[in-house]
Structures are given as C-alpha cells and as structure tokens.
Prior knowledge:
Helix content: 25-40%
Strand content: 15-25%
Structural class: alpha+beta
Number of strands: 4
Order of helices and strands: HHEEEEH
Distance between the termini: 85 Å
Radius of gyration: 26 Å
Oligomer: single chain
Amino acid sequence: MxxxxxxxxxxxxxxxxxxxxxxxxxxxxVVSGGAGSRQEAPFQRAERQVREQRGPDWExxxxxxxxxxxxxxxxxxxxxxxVTEEPVAFISRIGRILFxxxxxxxxxxxxxxEFCPAFARSxxxxx
Length: 127
C-alpha cells in the first residue's frame, strides 16, 4: 500500500486557512481591547469600585495616592435631598476595594499601613 504524501498543492490551502484564523483572532483581540488596552487611572478605578460596591449615589470625597497602584480615600453617599452622609475610609487596589466599616478592621488597618501609611485619618478613627 502506498502512503499518501503531503504535497504543496494540499499544504497551501491548509496554511492559508490557518493564516486567516490567526488574523481573525488578532483583529478580535485588538477590537475587544484585550491586548494593549490602556488601564484606567487609580483615581478613576477608585470611583468605579466605590459605585460598584456601594451604589450609584456614593461618591469619592477625598483620595490620595498610596504606594504602587493603591489609592486611599473617603467616600460618602449623597441622599436625595443632597445631604452627604458620614464618609467611610477605603483602600482601592487593582482587583479589590476594602472599606473601613466592613467586618475586617484588622485587615483594613494592615492594608492602610502597608499601602498608605500617611493616610489622613479622622480624629475619632482608631489608629
């Protein structure tokens, strides 16, 4: 029995299909913003994370740069009459935001000391 051989005539269409698939994949990555997309600024990220976690009526009231991509600040809700509620401290990192009023005060203090050691604290806030 003769073994079928791969000839140039059969190899060219196969390689052409592979090139078309790879080109389409590259175009899809560029259009969807996968490779080379610009990251949002840390302050914008903090605003987005606050609104995602607390709701659209929450706004960042104060923010300062921490070490690396972390930012620390205060956010508060504004009620329907425009009065701002008591602000809550937060630490925003790329994949996570942590608020001071969450049930992890020890973790919040550790992150605050690690990323924002000079972060402005309210007078009644625990050290």
